[in-house]
Amino acid sequence: MSLEKVLKSMSALEPLPLDATPKTRKTFEKSLMNRHRLSGLIHMHTSGLLAASGIDVVNSQLDWTDPQIDNSGPTTAEARYDEIMEALDDPMFLPEEWLQPILKPMKGTFQQMEHQAFLHLVRGYFPAKSVEELGELFDGARGDDVNLLAFAASIALETNLDPTARLHAREAIMQSIDASDNSQSFVSSVIRSIQCLRFAAEWALLPSLPGGRLWKTQYRTDAFSKHNAEFVATDHTAQEFNKRFSAFTNRHERVITARNDLRRLFSVYGPAILMHPAWSPVASYNTSTTGRSTTFPGLLSLFLHGPPEFSQDYHEENDKAFKQLIKILLPT
Fold this sequence. Notes:
Layout: H1 3-11, H2 22-52, H3 77-85, H4 95-98, H5 100-103, H6 110-123, H7 131-137, H8 145-156, H9 163-178, H10 186-205, H11 214-227, H12 229-233, H13 238-269, H14 296-305, H15 312-329
């Protein structure tokens, strides 16, 4: 990563709020002091090199204004991929670093959130020394009643042997999460993502069941009735029905695509894609948004078809970090 990009990331940091909790203050202080130490070492080293090389530096000759850094980000999938891959050799994120998007999800454009999420995938997650140590860093809300009920329902529905009924049950769980006040919490995103992964896997298997693709047709018809109950119950013309059903079908395809994208990422990166809230699909039957940037499909393709070669340690550390986090968020 270039020093200008390091400066860019430093410039984006905000001062610690006065009402920050002691744990948040401790985490922020540790991270900021480490950056301060490294920048000081860089200054000492360059100063030593200048002196040893007989180069006199007059402060008035230096331009201390911030460089004009373009914050808009790259505009093509290839450029975005190249920028993210610059971090490939950077060390894994430490717990106090990878907890930040969980405790305080960033507010930005889809591209900015995707960029952060891909950076976390590329660098990976270094686990804490213990669950207890991670718990000391964690000051966010843990699983509330809505999430715990959704978690219990997620386990219970696995005994349902009816393929389409099971898919509808998964939809119901995701809807219950989205309808709660806690829909933006990290716990919610994990449960939603797990249901999306299971849904995508089971959806792909439907054509192989007796009856073939009729299962998917039946599911779409049933789902339309569930999501348009008031419309279905009232009088309407065939033209009105076709228009409403066509709009629903388009949203249905976007929902399926979003869940399949997550499944494809999971097949390569494993539980690491559950460690950042930006990966949880937001495409739904209620809105037309995909929740992704326009260049995301191309970027996703690059990361799926030409993924970095990670060591076994990368996957093991990610798995360990995820298990530690879940033990705190959803204790059993």
